[in-house]
Amino acid sequence: METGFSFLTLRHKLERTPGRSSYTMSFQLSPALQAQPTPFYHYDLGLLDQTLTALQQAAEPRNFLVHYALKANANLPVLERIKNRGLGADCVSGGEVQRALEAGFTPDHIVFAGVGKSDAEINLALAADIWCFNAESVEELAVLDALAGAQNRKARVALRVNPNVDAYTHPHITTGLAANKFGISLTDLPGVVAHLSSLPNLELVGLHAHIGSQITNLQVFAKLSERLNELQTSLSDQGYNLPHLNVGGGLGINYEQPDEQAIPDFEGYFSMFERHLIRRPGQQVHVELGRALVAQCGTLISKVLYVKQSQQTNFAILDAGMTELMRPALYGSYHYIQNLSSHSAEQLYDVVGPICESSDTFRKGVLLPETQRGDLVAIRSAGAYGEVMSSGYNLREKAAAVYVGE
Ligand SMILES: *Cc1c(COP(=O)(O)O)cnc(C)c1O
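The line above is the sequence of Diaminopimelate decarboxylase; the predicted structure tokens follow.
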């Protein structure tokens, strides 16, 4: 039991639709949680478990190794669930490496990626003897080699390539185009591979790519596979056959209709790689998923402070804002919003937070049942890139996290 609320709780009712990988669910707030001070993050660990089961049913028969990208949500109860399934950890900072270790991921299941690793972060990861560094530049390799040498260690390295594949997602979460800061360009790669082989304290074990996030067009992963196939062929010609291939993360979720598709299409995702990616003999293929594993199990619960009427619109002013959930302000992203307290006729509202910024708007023109001060509002699909991005701006206190489900 994670908290005193564990079984009185808000319930997600999950029904498996036979023969389909989608799930339907309904969402209600239990009386016990209606008295919980707002705003708070609500995590349904039962849904997380079902998501992980669906993930493993799709990944294991096809022989993919899955790492969880901690940056999506690094709360310990979430991490423990994921670690207990035997997944690895994909970290992008020293803090995340430390958190992964705290949560019980063993070093041989930890990968450290990131375009700007500091010396202190690299040293921490070297001392822990993590499984692999995903390196992104010649400059980084030089530092990694020197720091590994100073610790008398050999660091395993995968080179992050920038495959120049359009993920067809929001520009701010596109990472695999030539114009993005991430990875090593295809033209530079042969030279970097040769250079790496000359560095005494590094061992090249694989290639890595991660082209973006919230990818809903699965054809993008076919494109990525084809690009990686070409790359592997040219590396083979150079005499390099690498034992590991990491294709990154990025599988998107259904923000518009979280109740219709609570669990992402893992079958479609893995079968796309299975069909298009050519593995070298004995090669292990890794994926790093964040959002797809945790987004739907998190909901931000908030209370309506005021309904303010202006000539142009009605504002529903919540006690949660961009300090709790920044995605709408940062990317203009959509979250499904529900009034849990009212069932009256629907009207249009601009749903906003209390922070002193105009971008502190969850969405304009939201159709909600007639809304009043004190109503509880659920902002759905907030389990990924929600709480981790929260800030103390306006000297706001951090919202609580409540865990439900067995
Ligand atoms: C953010 C990130 C991921 C996870 O992305 P999702 O879209 O959440 O699946 C995977 N790998 C790397 C290197 C990342 O930076």
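Note on the example: Confidence is low (pLDDT under 50) at residues 1-22. Residues 69, 71-72, 90, 92, 113, 210, 213, 248-251, 288-292 surround pyridoxal-5'-phosphate (CB under 6 Å).
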